[in-house]
Amino acid sequence: MSEPTFQWALIGPGSIAHRFAEAVARLDGCRLHAVCGRDAHRARQFAERWSQAGDPPVLAHTDPAAVMNDPAVDGVYVATPHGQHFEYVLAALQAGKAVLCEKSLVPNQEMGRRLVEASRAHRAFLMEAVWTRFLPIYQELAAWLRAGRIGALRGLQSSFCFPAPYDPDSRLFSPALAGGALLDVGIYNLTATRWVLQHALGEVPPLVDLQVKAALAPTGVDARLAVALDFGGGLVSQFHCAIDTFAPNTLQVLGESGAIVLPETFWEATRAQLLPARGMAETIERPFEINGFENEIREAMRCARAGEIESPVVPHAETLAVLGWMDRIRALAGVRSPFDDAFPPR
Asked: What structural domains does the chain harbor?
């Protein structure tokens, strides 16, 4: 007997939400049931774009309560600017809905703790949408690391930078919207660092030192960061993230007897290179089945259907650990947001 169709609601019909909607439309066993956005016209356009022949039309709402109170909704995908995630995720969890929320889950660790507490209190699934960890090429990366193909891990280098026009009111540069390079893109550098450490060493060692150099935008958010995470014994992960700079955006994993390179846009990579110190290089390709979002969506539905409140791939503790690192980095960079005053550490 087949399982009932998993019905998704989507909050925040922006550009990234189209990628989610495309994956849902092409996956078996699920459909987009409703979309909610502040602009009624934009919400209707999105709903019409992703309504499928033979299915009921996708509903369009401007009030999130319509989503939370709809018994047909099984899961909620939150794709608003991350400064708005907390209120929507909390409401969905309190309504007993499974939640897949874009990263960064929230602007600081204390807010994350409160959402994890709500997930546990209401027995509702919660996962930060770190889709990179579900990509086929990252499964190959993990296998190479576990097999010791590059010898002992020595270090990591990565970049995620893009030049955006300065707009003090945009989600990238506004403190009120939790702007800044770290929360927007630096999270990918951090989660990739932790992924590599977990599979190469079996754990993420504690930080022994953290060095941060920052260039702040006129609004006070971090426009550019250079970060070095020191795990002792000479093992360091260095990365740049920026919203005012261009970079090749690669991930390089350095080992005693070789290196692994994910060239260009490492967070959505489909290709990896194994470069041994001696011998021939090896290149593998692992394309997306749909657009890269499919496996995180499958995982969210699997967990929700099984009554689980977190995924072993992106568990709550992992999300909170990354948020803790980001809190420390922002503090060293001299960045403070309204969310830090509203949700100070307990």
From this structure: 6-131+305-310 (3.40.50.720), 136-287 (3.30.360.10)
